[in-house]
Amino acid sequence: MKIRLANEFDYPALRGIYLVSRRNSFEWANKEDMSLGDFDTHTGGESILVAEEDHHILGFTSLYLPDNFIHLLFVHPDCSGKGVGTRLLRAAAETMNTPLTLKCVSENHQAMKFYENQGWKKVVEEGTPQEKYWVMVYE
């Protein structure tokens, strides 16, 4: 598996991964409100790392470098549990300076468990009653 910076030719696959992953795991969200264009809207101004194997993109992470912040981390559902997310987190840590931060939707128990298993710590729960999330830190 190779981790590299995304380029414009990756965007169709990245849009697809973002959409299918959210529709597959965001049970609390309205799936009808999700679209392929969300990827471009949600990652504007961020650096994107992709995990690739045999010229096939398995997942990505988007980084807001000025704040050492991981904005998004998504792995195609077919590749879940194969170490893709772990490799992307390591690459993010190598790209930015610690401490790193991210936000994880409180209802996303699977993602929360994944981050905690990778050494991330919950700092504070924020947001509205309808959209709570944990701010997490990695040092």
UniProtKB/TrEMBL annotation:
Pfam families xrefs: Acetyltransf_1
Entry annotated with the keyword Transferase: yes
PROSITE patterns: GNAT
Domain (N-acetyltransferase): residue spans on this chain: 1-139
InterPro entries referenced in this protein's UniProt entry, alphabetically: Acyl_CoA_acyltransferase, Bact_Acetyltransf, GNAT_dom
UniProt keyword terms in alphabetical order: Acyltransferase, Transferase
Keyword Secreted: no
CDD domains: NAT_SF
Domain of life: Bacteria
GO molecular function: acyltransferase activity, transferring groups other than amino-acyl groups
Protein name (record): GNAT family N-acetyltransferase
Origin species: Paenibacillus lutrae
